[in-house]
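Researcher: I've been going back and forth with a colleague about how Response regulator receiver domain protein might be arranged in three dimensions. Neither of us has a model we trust, so I'd like an independent prediction. The organism is Methylophaga thiooxydans DMS010, in case that matters for your notes. Sequence below.
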Amino acid sequence: MLTTLLIEDDLDLAQTVIDYLSLESIRCDHASNGIAGLNLLAENQFDVLLLDLNLPRMDGLNVCEQLRQQGKDIPVLMLTARDQINDKLAGFKAGTDDYLVKPFELDELVVRLKALARRRSGQVQLLSCADLEMNLHTRTVTRATQPLKLSPTSWRLLETLLRASPAVVTKQQLEVAVWGDETPDSNSLKVHLFHLRKAIDAPFEHPLLHTIAGHGFALRQDNETTTQS
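Model: Here is an independent structure prediction for Response regulator receiver domain protein. You can compare it with whatever you and your colleague have in mind.
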């Protein structure tokens, strides 16, 4: 059974998350402030940390920074109402592994949580969506068993999208995954996504890379409520 720690001061939200994770056979302990959360992390082993950004006593960024300074490699999924790129960059710089903006869908929370847990355990060697497969061990990508050639940037974009699939990945999250703290040219991401789509979708009948209008991008089999760009 996966074990998680949720550090969240909104008690109603915390209880909702705990109840939903229980239905998914995921045990979730809870702390309502940063200091209490750090104490639980010092005394227990968890597979994933769900960390609110705005916390009493110690905010989420400081909690994350302290964990990394202590050498703890627990995956951190930051939960925040802030959707600004500067806030996200600060989180990634502090050691956050992934972001989920409030309000969020509970099923997306579970998808991201499980992906982080698998990444930590080293079990993920093959990422896939429909007939598209990425082998992290051999560093190869195939679709319908046909090998695909990707640039290093396209590889990073595809890996980020596959790890989140079928959830939506925002433009800002993709930029951070590829360029980190550096600010890319305004058109860079669009150009690289064009080349990625050309590599993984153009030769095939059914597209997998979808633009979710107003939200971001997703790898998924269906294209309901999506538009191509």
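Researcher: What would you highlight for our discussion?
Model: I'd start with this: The domain at 2-121 is CATH 3.40.50.2300 (Rossmann fold). After that, consider the following. The chain has two domains: 2-121, 126-219.
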